[in-house]
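Q: Hi! First time doing this. I have a protein sequence and I read that you can turn it into a structure. Is that right? Here it is:
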Amino acid sequence: MLRNVKRCIAAVLLLAIAAVTWTVKTGAFVDDKGGLPEKGDALAAIADVNSNRHTRTETFDKVPNRLNLDGYAKIMEDSRLEVWHREKNASIRVVDKATGYVWGGLAEEKPEDMNTTWSGVGNALVSIDYFDAKGLEKRLSIADKNVKKSFKAQGNILRYSVSYITLDISFDFEMELRDGSLLFRMIDDSIKEGEDYSLAAVYFVPFLGSTRADEIDGYMLVPDGPGALIRYSKPSQYLVNFDKRIYGKDYGIDHLFEVNDLKSSRPNDFSTEEPQVLMPVFGVVHGVKQNAYFARVEKGAEYASIVATPSGIVTNYNWISARFIYRQKYLQPTSKSGAGVQVAQKERNRFEAEISYRFLRGEDADYIGMAKLYRRILQEEGNLPAGERIDADIPLQLDIIGSDLERGFIFNRVLPITTAAKARQIAEDIAGQGISNITMVFKGWQKGGLNGSRPSNFSFESKVGGKKALSLLDEHISSKGGRFYYYENPVTVKETQIDLRQEGGTALSQALIKVERDNDAIWLKDTYFVKADIAADYVAGKAKLYAENGMKGMALDEFGQRLYAENQRDRVTCRLDIRKKQEETAQKVLVDIENLAMYRPNQYLWKYSSEIFNVPVTNSQCLFETDTVPFMQIVLKGSVDYYAPYSNMSFYSRTDVLRMIEYGAYPAFLLTGLDNHEMEHTPISELYSTKYEDWKQHILEVYNDVNAALSRVEGRKITGRTVVSSGVVKMDYEGGVSILINYTGSNYSFGSVNIPAQSYAVLEGE
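A: Yes, that's right. Below is the predicted 3D structure, encoded as structure tokens:
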């Protein structure tokens, strides 16, 4: 399978910026002498800060009510909301009682610019996708004339029975008003299907909050990477919409990568995967600081995707929804060469589907208010870590590669890359420069090296110093106030690391789950997935051995980020069961060891994370994504230490350093004791610059710069964010501390504070 090019046009490498709430007094760009900036500097600033890697300044145009209640009858009410219902097309209106603002689908039953099918989808409570007898996927709402429906209201619960007569598909669903939130749930046991048509997916109120083109000021929030906005605009001819599985692709059925269409002669290995959806949420804003709703998939997120469609794709409307997936197509091989046909799943996914909508107003009605609401929800549920560790100085993450497998003429061998003694020398050298708060992750500590050790085995590689040397390194880091982690990746392996028949994950097509690369110059270029449930067993078993050997910290890579089913004919484990097993495993691990760090885990594992590595800092850079925002960081800050991508792996520009400061993320580096050319015959030959001595000065510069800002807000939550001017952002924290970041090429004056070009200033409050 070829590596993916991304459906959306993805830009270089990074990310985006933020926004807060503070009354801006005065602000202006000035040069070093207090005058206006040179024209060239201003143009250079505009080129970057106006891209979708940053956040735009907000406008606050008043958004009037566009919908009315004509033809609707009130059926539910609580202290915050009224819900009105129209039986004819099974549609609703939701009224915010404090503001009188009316939420709903389309303003008309059948707009002139929509056909009958889309008009039904745009108004109805529920729409479905289905497969016909030929396997073609189509869409139909319950507003269609051939759909029989009935409903019964009992208190603040409305139960609908729906029957698609011509399709022989029927089901029941409920709508409930509870404490100012509107919930929709599918009654899974009620789903019935005939022989010729099968249920593919279900959408609840897909056009709730939809807008026509740029008729109003606002945007849709999608959980792409740290967070992305899709601002309302005139229709454009986009080829695809935003459609991503929550918690990432199910590698047991989804294509791992899409076909490369770059028309380029270079190997497509240089393409990277799009950021994964780590959070089951999305949102809609009608007028910043005026009206908004925040949606969360409460149940069934493992089988759902977030679909956001800007105007110009099929219709002239912007709309966003969760798509609950009951069936999808997969490649069924028809020959040993890999050729095959696309067929739909025979058995549907069985799960509880439930989504909630919470309506926001005033100061809370933007993506910042949504992030703060989500943070509060997770805290109340106990789904966030207890709190960030508070130190005088921020931590620095150093990932050390100890050893790896090296190809030999006749026999392969283990290449020592960084011994435990060398890693200690690095830590002492850095401490000598004033950095003692180190979070160190040691990779390739097990016998066989990073890509040669078996995930089921527990043993120490003697060539890096063995158990004694690693224990001493652990003690040294811990004694200085840092943390030491032994690296584990039980999910993806090379073919030499497992018995593929017994341990390899199986897709629905009955083929092994693997990533194939088309660069033959890379040794062991294919990557295989371990059976997901077996991977969890390996982790739990390792934790007990950690405890027996006095090892206190485990760093888990890909576990909790990759969520995929196991599909052997005689052994099927669904995606929901795998999620539950991952959570149970994390609980067991923390019984045996003190610290469990994770690389970019899905939201359901955040609460088990002592630290989070490699947090996303950029979205997919799709053309319709207008802004990048630190939604995830606003949720996490103050609850857990989290780190940026490696600064020596293309995240090292001045803009990237400022991004760390803005996002509250700590710096990280991937380091080795050898020159990279000495690793050319290993599976990590692609690492182009990791030798410590080459990065020593940069480590000190990056750390000291970030530490000077973020040490002032250790343990504090983000309370607001404001894009003061294009490329100038203010992040507000608890306790009245604010950090102003200037990404532009010119100095910026904020009241009496001057922020140099490409720099920042910390304000202690008024």
